[in-house]
Design a protein that fits this description.
Elements (H helix, E strand, L loop, with lengths): L1 E7 L4 H12 L4 E8 L5 H8 L4 E3 L8 H15 L3 E4 L8 H6 L4 E5 L11 H8 L3 E8 L9 E8 L6 H24 L3 E4 L2 E4 L9 E2 L8
Parallel strand pairs: 1-2, 1-4, 2-3, 4-5, 7-10
Antiparallel strand pairs: 5-6, 6-7, 8-9
Helix pairs in contact: 1-6
Bound molecules: glycinamide ribonucleotide (GAR).
The site of glycinamide ribonucleotide has 15 residues, from helix 1, strand 5 and helix 6.
Length: about 220
Amino acid sequence: MKSIVILISGRGSNMESLLDAVDSGALPVSVAAVISSRADAQGLTTAAKRGIPTQVVDHRQFPRREDFDAALAEVIDALSPDLVVLAGFMRILSDGFVTRFTGRLINIHPSLLPSFPGLHTHRRALDEGVKVHGCTVHFVTTALDHGPIIVQAAVPVLDDDDETRLAARVLAQEHAIYTQAVRWLADGRLQLVDGRVRLDAPQDGEGLLTAPRIRTGR
Ligand code: GAR
């Protein structure tokens, strides 16, 4: 069975949905640890309550990004995970860190990349008036919120949406596709080959893109 570490910085709902899938047997991985960049991350309490080992690498204790990344890499390497899963990990990682974990470092982002990298994705989607929004799981590369896309889910943007409602609709899809992507990796069906995603899975109907249901009236 493959082992993973999950990196968080806050609430940890994506982490929790992965842990739920592990507990239910739907996700055949062992979770070696949850590591947070903040000591006050809510997700740390959640993980500890569930008996998952937790560690904090507090970014504020490292004046230079490279030093934080080196400390983080050391903690991860000591656990020898097959996969490093960023789940609301809100630090920009240095090129050295990303290169070290290439092919086994994945991230979830709350937009349909390459649209809306960075922060406040839901507000920006509303401001732009896009009709379709969503989330993306991707391999991490040295470009911020960018990299070979593994799976995306789309949701409709409704006329009366505000940031909270839209974020909640996207988050439900994040939980679904992140579990799916980690399961593909756990099953050895998903790889990064020459910078491209190679997925050995049916390309139709297994959720490569979850499309919104458009109501046509009546
Ligand atoms: C999620 O929406 C995740 O996609 C986003 O942070 C949130 C964390 O929520 N990540 C990023 O914006 C990374 N660029 P969670 O802690 O409840 O999983």
